[in-house]
Amino acid sequence: MSALHQSAVIGVIGAGAMGAGIAQVAAQAGHQVKLYDNREGVAQTSIDSMAKQLAKLVERNKFTAEQVQQILARLSVANLLEDFSDTGLVVEAIVENIDVKKNIFDALEAICSANCILASNTSSISITRLAAGMKHPERMVGMHFFNPAPIMKLVEVVSGLATDSDVATCVYETALNWGKKPVYAASTPGFIVNRVARPFYAESFRLRQEQVADCVTLDTLLKGAGGFRMGAFELTDMIGHDVNYAVTCSVFDAYYGDFRFQPSLIQKDLVDAGFLGRKSGQGFYSYKEGGDKPQAQCVEVSPLDDGAVITCEVSKDIGYLKGLVDRLSRAGVQVTEVSDLAKGYLKIGDTFVALTDGRMACERGKEEALNDLVLVDLALDYQSATHIALSRSATTSAEAFNDVVQCFDLVGIKVSEVVDSPALVVMRTVAMLANEAADAVLQGVASAEGVDTAMCFGLNYPQGPLVWADAIGVAEIDKVLTHLQQSYGEDRYRPSLLMRRIAMVEGRFHD
After folding, report:
1. pTM above the 0.90 mark?
2. Catalytic annotation on 156?
């Protein structure tokens, strides 16, 4: 089944932010759209608000006045559900309550034509459960947009057990025609994004709880090294802790208490206190007027002596740190490749430097008999990173550590020393994101390409977690996860079977 023709009438139920956004997207794509809300006057108010927002886009030359008039002319208010009798697709975007939603779809089955597709914008309720008991469950599908719908590109096209593959294909192709980036997903808890994203929050929360670094330092590292647009603390402050915590609890419960999805006690404390983030004026950060903005904790650099030259020995196989070595070389550090230095190591002065492999620096230093050892966190691109986390073994001297910090200072990278912890900050987060993504692929929730597309276009990740794992090396990510699991002794960090399988054959998630 191909995409719905532009002549198909689209119905949208729920005129809140999501419903109104979906209606706008469909109208911009050329469809006649009927917007329904059971609260009197709300649908018309939403259309009026839409008109004001579109007028602002005219001022910014995103649309012409004529285009806006045409879009608004395609929007109308449905006063009754019976007004949807001529629709080709109805998208429900109401409260996340399965009983309320099922009542709506029961009514629609009696009103809409047999070939009308019924879709839910639910982010957490099973499409299989919604379709259960329907006369024609094969036409029920998930069409999960992300807020704000006119801007965010991702649409998760979610199939329940009974969903006809032609129906899913039609919704996928229709979303493409609407200018979106659709991905296929199976109806499992959290679908793709709300499942795979859990470690992004969970690992930062755990690092904070273990006092590895403060909130602003952790956020800064995820942005300055990881390339993420926001850190976990500022992002959850923006989402609202009541919302984010509820989603985490929902996914945790849906997976029968799997500790990979365990909610955070420090987030629960915020919810219990009513510190919900931006909307309450206080979350991990304060949003009160006149408050000081916290700054990341950075290591103070001792200046180089006049005429001093930093030298760096590099192993022949430096691996993922090659970008850092190239940046050091361009900045004037004398880099020499040596054959007797172990794989993946740099030697700055007498200090051994390596990318974290998931072990604590104290553990790695003891196992490899290295007195002066500094571990470097992962960066998306060492050529452009602005901030990095370092940790050192207990035997590493202040002078040895300063030699390494001076190198990073020379190339314009700020350093935050974090408490010695397994896999540091960015590596730990990315490894866990990749692990959850791998499990989603293993269980048939989505393809590797679908997962990466979803995380990039649904949450603006700098790159998909499985593309990232391929770049680092799947075997390296598997090693990091194994060391994390050994350090904590918890099932939470168990490597996905698919991750291990690909690591064993030195393969990749993407061809």
Report:
1. yes
2. yes
Largest CA distance in the chain: 84
Q: Which of 121, 194, 244, 435 is catalytic?
A: 194
**φ, ψ dihedrals at 499, nearest 5°:** -60, -50
SS3 122: coil
pLDDT digits (tens, 9 = 90+) for 418-462: 999 999 999 999 999 999 999 999 999 999 999 999 999 999 999
Cα 169 to Cα 191: distance, rounded to the nearest angstrom:
17
Active-site hit among 109, 156, 436, 476: 156
Task: Report the alpha-carbon distance of residue 159 to residue 157 in Å, rounded.
Answer: 7
Q: Single out the catalytic residue among 31, 76, 121, 144.
A: 144
For residues 323 and 381, what is the distance between their CA atoms, to the nearest angstrom?
7
**Residue 341 in 3-state DSSP?**
coil
**Does residue 193 contact residue 454 with C-beta atoms inside 8 Å?**
yes
Cα–Cα distances in angstroms (integers) from residue 364 to residues 203, 360, 373, 421, 427, in the given order: 21, 6, 8, 11, 16
Q: In whole angstroms, how far apart are CA 192 and each of 5, 85, 250, 456, 482?
A: 28, 32, 14, 12, 24
Half-sphere exposure of residue 502: CA atoms within 13 angstroms, side-chain side: 25
Q: Which residue of the set 76, 120, 123, 126 is catalytic?
A: 123
Verify whether residue 194 is a known catalytic residue. yes
